[in-house]
Amino acid sequence: MKNRTFSVFYQKYEQILEKEILSSEIPGHIAVIMDGNRRYAGQLGRALSFGHAMGAEVTERVIEWCYEIGVKQLTLYAFSTENFQRSEEEVGGLFNLINDKFLKLHTDKRTYEKEMQVRVIGDRTKLPAFLNESIEKIEKATEHHRKFNLNVAIAYGGRQDIIQAVRDIATCVSSGKLSLEDVNENLISKHLYPAPGVPVPNVDLIVRTGGDERVSNFLPWQANGSECATYFCAPFWPEFRKIDLLRSIRVYQARKEEKKREHSY
């Protein structure tokens, strides 16, 4: 009876909060650091693969929630360059799990009904051939979709992304394709992942689960330059709820209002 009462209260609070945030500006681009899968599995005495699988289920729900709320761009930090330091078994399991999710997106009719464009940002030379094949397949199938954009960061590191962009530009300058006068913020953005292609836009809100208050080298060019809002929350990623997403958006909206007041003085 107690759990049922709490569930009813939770649902009512979620409805009120959603109505509240929908009455104000929704962030156009949310970036999520999905942290805590391993610790979630550990506290339950389960294998790491269990935590990653549960986290993947939450990821699917978060994509749905963002679409329903009206978010246009969602970027997910799925696998960092630092994650290669984990065991071969865990890395292989993660790549298989990510691959399965891309294959599911490719066959899921909702991908096409929502006009969802799926892109991967990161160093694909570090990925196995079977995963690159699935990435190319889903990107090709959704390349003309514009209603909702899902960016998945795999083998990604923010500093490494900037370094590869600078090297690419330096090569173009050296070969005469570009002059030094051509180099500006827009040009650098165009050479960041997923170049060649439409640049990932500035981030409005970064969400990190798992209790750590750091952004872990995630989209530094797109996030720090725009001084985006940040929301750190305690739940591990498999425990992330819609109400947590709504609270993060409320933080973004409060920050927007604060900036407006500052500019009005």
Question: Could you please describe the fold and organization of this structure?
Answer:
With about 260 residues, the chain is α/β, with parallel strands linked by helices. The chain has a single domain, classed as Decaprenyl diphosphate synthase-like (Undecaprenyl pyrophosphate synthetase), CATH 3.40.1180. It is about 55% helix and about 15% strand. The protein contains 10 helices and 6 strands. Strands 3-4-2-1-5-6 form a 6-stranded parallel beta sheet, sandwiched between helices. α9 links the parallel β5 and β6 (about 230). α4 (about 90-105) runs parallel beside α6. The radius of gyration is 19 Å and the shape is globular. The termini are far apart. The model has no long low-confidence stretch (mean pLDDT about 95).
CATH topology: Undecaprenyl pyrophosphate synthetase
Name of the top-level CATH class: Alpha Beta
Distance between the termini: 52 Å
Give the H and E element order. HEHHEHHEHEHHEHEH
Q: Which percent bin holds the helix content?
A: 40-55%
Under CATH, the homologous superfamily reads Decaprenyl diphosphate synthase-like
